[in-house]
Amino acid sequence: MAAPRFHRLRGRIVPVLIDDIDTDQIIPARYLKTTAREGLAEGLFAGWRSSAADSQRPFPLDDPRFQGGSILLAGENFGCGSSREHAPWALLDHGFRAVIAPSFADIFRSNAQKNGLLPVSLPEEVHRPLADAVLRNPRIEVTVDLERLAVELPGGTTVGFEADPFTRICLLRGVDPLGYLLDQGDLLADFERRRPAPFDTRSAAGAPP
Amino acid sequence: MGHTPRTLFDKIWRRHVVAEPEDAGMPATLFVDLHLIHEVTSPQAFAELDRRRLKVRRPDLTVATMDHSTPTAPGSTRPGWRLVDPEAADQLDRLEDNCRRHGVPLFPLGDRRQGIVHVIGPELGLTQPGSVIVCGDSHTSTHGAFGAFAFGIGTSEVGHVLATQTLLQHKPPTLEIHISGRLGTGVTAKDLVLGILARVGVDGGTGHVVEYTGAAVRGLDMEGRMTVCNMSIEAGARAGMVAPDEVTVDYLRGRPYAPTGDGFDRAAESWLGLAGDPGAQHDRRVELDGSALAPMITWGTNPGMAVPVGGRLPRIAEVPHERRAGVKKALAYMGFREGASIQGRPVDVVFVGSCTNSRLSDLEAAARVLDGRRIADGLRMLVVPGSRRVKAEAEDRGLDDVFRAAGAEWREAGCSMCLAMNGDRLAPGQVAVSTSNRNFEGRQGPGGRTLLASPVTAAACAVAGRVVDPREVL
Ligand code: SF4
């Protein structure tokens, strides 16, 4: 996989305005039997999509009003629970490039960034009016600009957001974190020389008699 | 004068920094002492290594097992048993192939060391105090019970660790959760951690490393400490940890991968020196009174939605405005009424297992309740030991007979109904009392409803066929 990039994204919004959306909802475990990163969109929000279909009120992803949105707008603590990177893979596979929420769970944030799916935290006082605006007019667009660390809202106002400097550099310049680590090989070799291993997992130590 | 007082976490962090951050806001490069892998979150990482023609740098610090999608039907570990699910079979084959090609030791299905990744690390003595331990699994926090910095990572990071044995990490802040007092009868480590989650909420620890301190934590055995640290992630925490003490040292003595002879004594001495220095400051602190805790159970769709078994569900009017939508949604999914009591709710399935509560002491606690009793008519109870070793130890003690005589299923080791990937799952609408760690919608099967509780409470509910306070039967 080439290092993902993210610069600037202009797009429409799909609102899933629920707090504490866990990664089991984003992609249920039964979709994790794959050995690939692609093709996971089928499982995206599968549980909620199927129960919404039963109730005749489409889940936002299937609501014609929100088709083609590339930005997911979610509630706070988005992506809590399991560490499955299948969650950002599924969101990307569906066509999302950014998620806006008041806050994110730790591991999800890290996984998303590594795949070029940008997590954008906006404070409640910006998030709520944005949600209201999308529900009133699903066709509004926003721009997420990682270079300027700013979101341009409909109507022309701009709000800032934070990204950690390393992630920002990686995504803007297409720096590959694994390549960065591999470049530190000499420092690592020194460190390993000073550090005797406490065991060798390959030894028969754990083998049953 | 000496250096500034350091916390347990500070001491471990400092010893693992391979490269300091170049600038403020940049990550440090951290060395990993133990990398645990399993079938679900590793195939894409190995594929990335292959694509770049990289080798696993330290197979000697890496170990793999099969746990998430493996069958647990009795007898399913015997040679010749075939997996019916072709996708799961492919995933297991892939792990075997990856491990063979890269020289990574694997404890496959049928191996007597196989089991849930967070159960086998400690029982084999691979989990050692002062280590940095990672796994592509959020419950890696379990290993923090030994005074290790242990945390879950995504698959991209699994690839980083396979290739370099290091990770890029920002130094997280720390949160001390201090639990004073002594836990009462029928109140276990699980109730303690559910009590903590009810108090701090599912994002109360986001980004922090939690250190659990206080008499109630010191009073727990290693398996209880693992239960508490296991669920740190349910508060959003990066990791949870308990400072090593004599209980830790005693647990590790004689374990297969632990040091031996003089080496063990020297290691023990350094482990005991890891505890935070007097006066060391955490970034935040929360206090709880352990003696005030009762047996807990969850009623909703995240682990923070927990109440004492004898308590009532929240009334919408009492819930802060911003939380009301979530509470309503959870009540609707669970089919519960606001303000109702949870006691007496009918239960269809009881699951004793998972990396939270599938160790020998958990099974013993459940067996004590079931001994000489029968589970309720029509109720299904699955007992799934965390590892082959736990299973063998339990059978040596005759626990399997107790479970079978009570009408429960005694199964093979694995994750099983904790995440319902292997076919062990609830039918839509069924209510389960489960000793696992997540009650998310559909976690144990689409449409299934999960009430999280301790093994003691779960067993008591199995006998009654409804939710009961375990102290009624103890
Ligand atoms: S038992 Fe459950 S929580 Fe633990 S590793 Fe397995 S699936 Fe994850």
The count of helical stretches of chain B stands at 15
Give me the secondary-structure category of chain A: alpha/beta
Q: What is the beta-strand fraction of chain A?
A: 15-25%
Low-confidence stretches of chain B: none
Q: How many strands, what sense, and barrel or not for the largest sheet of chain B?
A: 5 strands, parallel
- Largest β sheet strand count, sense and barrel closure of chain A: 7 strands, mixed
How would you describe this structure to a colleague?
The complex is a heterodimer of chains A (209) and B (474). Chain A has 209 residues and is an alpha/beta fold. Chain A is 33% helix and 15% strand. A seven-stranded mixed sheet of chain A has the order 4-3-2-1-5-6-7. The longest helix of chain A has 13 residues, at 124-136. Chain B is an alpha/beta fold and 474 residues long. Chain B has 15 helices and 19 strands. Chain B has helices at 8-16, 43-51, 86-102, 117-123, 155-164, 189-200, 215-218, 222-230, 246-252, 261-272, 321-334, 360-370, 388-396, 399-406, 455-464, and strands at 17-19, 28-31, 34-37, 62-65, 106-107, 132-135, 149-152, 166-169, 174-180, 209-213, 239-241, 284-289, 296-298, 306-308, 349-352, 380-383, 409-410, 431-434, 449-452. A five-stranded parallel sheet of chain B has the order 5-4-3-6-7. In chain B, helix 6 (189-200) packs parallel to helix 8 (222-230) and helix 12 runs parallel beside helix 15. The longest helix of chain B has 17 residues, at 86-102. Chains A and B meet through helix 2, helix 4, helix 7 and helix 8 of A and helix 2, helix 3, helix 5, strand 8 and helix 11 of B. Bound molecules: iron/sulfur cluster.
Question: What would a concise description of this structure say?
Answer:
The complex is a heterodimer of chains A (209) and B (474). With 209 residues, chain A is of the alpha/beta class. Chain A has helices at residues 23-26, 46-54, 86-94, 106-114, 124-136, 165-173, 177-182, 185-193, and strands at 8-16, 71-74, 98-101, 118-121, 141-145, 150-152, 158-160.
